[in-house]
Amino acid sequence: MVQGQLLVHVWSFWMLRQAIFSHVTPIAALSPSSISSSQFTYRMAKNADLPGVAQLLRDTFESDDQNRDSTKAKEIEQGLQRRMTEMKSTPLPHAFLVATPSDLVGTKSPDGIAAFLELGTMPSPISIEKEWNGVNVFTRPELPYVANLVVSESTRRQKVGYTMVQLAIKIAKKWCDGSSDAFLFLSVDHDNQGALSFYERLGFERMDLSTSQKALPTISKVYLKKFLFR
Ligand SMILES: CC(C)(COP(=O)(O)OP(=O)(O)OC[C@H]1O[C@@H](n2cnc3c(N)ncnc32)[C@H](O)[C@@H]1OP(=O)(O)O)[C@@H](O)C(=O)NCCC(=O)NCCS
């Protein structure tokens, strides 16, 4: 599967999941957070950021030249716009984070978007054993999930990705409200060695999906998790 198709696939799966799990009890609402360093500002995305974010996603994930036109960027932007609107009406928490260069100089990224990260929730890809009324049961709780982390090529290896994930962890902790088993998870293409090294360096560990793979649509991926309160 080419990366572009994969992106659409992940998004479609996300939308499907939104429909299926819209009954889930709301997790604590997101409070806006922002961090500034001398070079970059990290904050929640605004509507005006979406064209730049779409271009960054297209340039990163669309390796096929045919898909690198403005129509594709518009399509991605519309998807982002739709999810941003839906965020306001769904009980499931969702956040779009961006990093912008503090002086808007030194990045070739369009509209000053140096990085983007999408944070939502999904059912855990593995069953978790819990004691309930004295009986051990297996559940797949709704947990925070990272998608579409991208740092513009000109700003890589400057700890921007690291800071985006730290911010996502901070937000995810608020959503999960101290639950000791809670973890943040994500999936990476098995051949995306750079991203795998990046996440493992940040303390994410590979999940054993040998008992759950049948339920997952994307078995060509490696799933990684990081406990939030351990
Ligand atoms: C993966 C990605 C987000 C990393 O962002 P970044 O801002 O460059 O990463 P950081 O500077 O925060 O890296 C922190 C550490 O992670 C590791 N790391 C980061 N990128 C790496 C790479 N390509 N190869 C190996 N290790 C890497 C390093 O140990 C690095 O520390 P160091 O620079 O001191 O050695 C970025 O390369 C990217 O956007 N890639 C394309 C999109 C993508 O694959 N996204 C992930 C989809 S799941």
Automatic annotation (TrEMBL):
Keywords: Signal. Residues 40-229 form the N-acetyltransferase domain. Residues 1-29 form the signal peptide. GO terms for molecular function: acyltransferase activity, transferring groups other than amino-acyl groups. InterPro entries: GNAT_dom. This is Acetyltransferase GNAT domain containing protein. It comes from Nitzschia inconspicua.
